[in-house]
Each structure stands twice: as structure tokens, then as C-alpha cells.
Design a protein that fits this description.
The chain has a single domain (2-171), classed as Glutamine Phosphoribosylpyrophosphate, subunit 1, domain 1, CATH 3.60.20. 23% of the residues lie in helices and 33% in strands. A hairpin with a 2-residue loop joins strand 8 (156-162) and strand 9 (165-171). The chain starts with a strand and ends in an 8-residue tail after the last strand. Helix 3 packs parallel to helix 4 (101-115). It is globular, with a radius of gyration of 16 Å. The chain is of the alpha+beta class and 179 residues long.
Length: 179
């Protein structure tokens, strides 16, 4: 999974910002998405114009940690992994039996956005499992990004900045998640 967002959409930690003002823009030039597509020829790119993009591939997917994508009311969410307390979260968010993990994440975000004040980290703590997700709300130009793992899965998040964009990529050691 790869996401590249303009700084107006997702602020990066100051310590990770490039001191070079003349850097090439990963979003404008699209070189990261092009490289990802060259490595994963069957990848899908969801382009949000000047706001950013999400790129993902279904190649070499671990059946125990599937990659799911959904769009609801201009909220785009890419999810990978599994949630252990699905039944409880469906009940908490008033979802039907057919709702899957990516729909739960979208509904958790909508609840956070519409019914706050509820800390985003608490929303993520309420979700039990091994997962990573990237959510983009095109109406409000907001992002919600998380990676959660148990001790048995070493999950790392990587934030990098190229000029005026935030680049988010989640990866896990080979055999767990393919990004």
C-alpha cells in the first residue's frame, strides 16, 4: 500500500520534512506511483488530483491478512489485515451482518468525524487485530491512517516527506503483508 498526500491534506512530522525547498514533488511528478506500478504491474491507482493518491496491489496477498478497498460517501479506505472483534464493532456502529473490516473502519471514521470529541487513538485502540489502513475523506480533505500489530507481527510504519507531500507506506516482513 502506498499513499502520497499534499501537505494541505496530511501534515507530516516536522523532523521528517525535507530541508531542501527545491526537492522534486513525489505527488506532482508521480514517480513513486509509477515505480510502485512498475514493481506491481496489476496495481490500482486512485488519484485524488492535487490532494494525493493511493496505490495498491492484490498480488501475493496473504489470505489471512487480506487487502480490501471501499468507497462510501466520498470516503476512500484501503485496509489490510483482520479485525478480531468484528461482531462487537458492527454492533457498536450499527452495521449489518455483511459489513466487512474496511466498512467498519469507514464507519469508525464517520463516527469520529461527526460525533466527536472522541480521540482518534481511542478509536484505533477499540479495534483489536492485525491491520493497517489509509483513509481519505475527499469532502473534508482529511486523512486517517493507522498500523496496529500484535507481538507476533512486526509491523512498521514509514513516513517520508518529499518537498510538500506526506508519503505513507505500511510494510511488514515478507510472508505477512505485501505492500
Amino acid at each position: 500500500m502506498l499513499a502520497v498526500f499534499d501537505k494541505s491534506v496530511a501534515k507530516s512530522p516536522e523532523a521528517l520534512q525535507s530541508p531542501q525547498s527545491g526537492s522534486v514533488s513525489a505527488l506532482k511528478d508521480g514517480f513513486l506511483a509509477q515505480h510502485f506500478a512498475s514493481v506491481h504491474p496489476s496495481s490500482v491507482t486512485v488519484n485524488f488530483g492535487s490532494s494525493g493518491l493511493i496505490v495498491y496491489s492484490l498480488d501475493k496477498q496473504n489470505p489471512l491478512l487480506p487487502r480490501l478497498f471501499a468507497v462510501v460517501d466520498d470516503i476512500f479506505c484501503l485496509f489490510q489485515g483482520h479485525i478480531e472483534n468484528v461482531a462487537l464493532l458492527k454492533q457498536q456502529y450499527g452495521l449489518n451482518k455483511t459489513a466487512n473490516e474496511v466498512i467498519i473502519i469507514i464507519e469508525a471514521y464517520r463516527t469520529l468525524r461527526d460525533r466527536g470529541p472522541y480521540p482518534a487513538d481511542q478509536v484505533v485502540r477499540d479495534i483489536q487485530g492485525k491491520f493497517a489502513f489509509i483513509l481519505y475523506d475527499s469532502a473534508s480533505k482529511a486523512t486517517f491512517v493507522a498500523a496496529v500489530s500484535k507481538a507476533s507481527l512486526s509491523c512498521h510504519s514509514f513516513f517520508n516527506v518529499c518537498f510538500q507531500v506526506l508519503v505513507v507506506s505500511f510494510f511488514v516482513p515478507t510472508g505477512h503483508l505485501l505492500l
